[in-house]
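Sequence in, structure out.
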Amino acid sequence: MTEMVYGAVPVQSGEPILPKWWRTVDKWTLSCIMILFGIGLLLGLAASVPLAEKNDFGAFHYVTRQAVFGGAALVAMLITSMMSPNLVRRLAVLGFLAAFIAILGLPFLGTDFGKGAVRWYSLGFASVQPSEFLKPGFVVVAAWMMAASQEINGPPGKSLSLILAGVIVILLALQPDFGQAALILFGWGVMYFVAGAPMILLVVLAGLVVLGGSFAYNSSEHFARRIDGFLNPDVDPRTQLGYAANAIREGGFFGVGVGEGQVKWSLPDAHTDFIIAVAAEEYGLVLVLVIIALYASVVVRSLMRLMRERDPFIRLAGTGLAAIFGVQAMINMGVAVRLLPAKGMTLPFVSYGGSSLIAGGIAVGMLLAFTRTRPQGEIDEIFRGRGR
């Protein structure tokens, strides 16, 4: 007898992978990601041309590279989304270990490309930022630990995940890369909260974060300079924040017109960290609101599907991935409008960057794999069953 379940479709035995994937994947989330990537290429056509000319490349050098990296990211996303949660977990553990070892080797083999932070490995034809690949791997590993701790006689997974998060945050802060460190800590905090952490412990951890920020401010000139710039009420119009703020004001509601923006000629990071300023200037508030709606749709749709998930590992891992994806977008746009201190963080699937695009594709692929429809009852059936 066919089981009738909420939000699930009966799975046919021996069904081919592609039809099964298409029937069970969240098509709305998939569509939003594709649209974001298309917007990224559109903005790249405007934002990257000045930099290409400055570096004596062809006008569409960076757009072509973004299309190549983005194509690889989409392929990685689609392949990962077709995997089972168990296979995703196994590969994520291996990927996490590789990225963690790469992070450890950065002080010896890494480079800063003149930006003051040793975050990359130079491969000659491209560069790799290990922290981008560390994030999705860490989320899955931490979720696995937390889920295991909920089993009878299970390991102290929550405590182990906290220690692991602390080690990673310290390693990233030493680069320094406080933006990625904050994302790791936030993702862990969201999963810990969902796993049933006591509020008092979360308050204590928040206090420790504040103390850590104070220590970083007093010991890191790089960190202090960014905080001072954020707190200063007067924005130097010759800085990146000044150029971005002026571009957003000039764009207004409908923008100054395609190709008519000027901020791309002044901002060295117009195609990466400040891509939203280019969107606001040339296309106005309308496109910015569309971009925000797309990110919000991915996060909300994913969380709604995860609410029906019985498996604690899938629920925790999916929640952590959705939280990091949404908060990274929020931080990037918040910096551009000066709601947050400056951080070197890309806008997922929109900004230029090989590591960011491919790692983002893997992370969203994991999220799609975790949110695929599976034949199961509603989660509240578990609690009703326990009460009998």
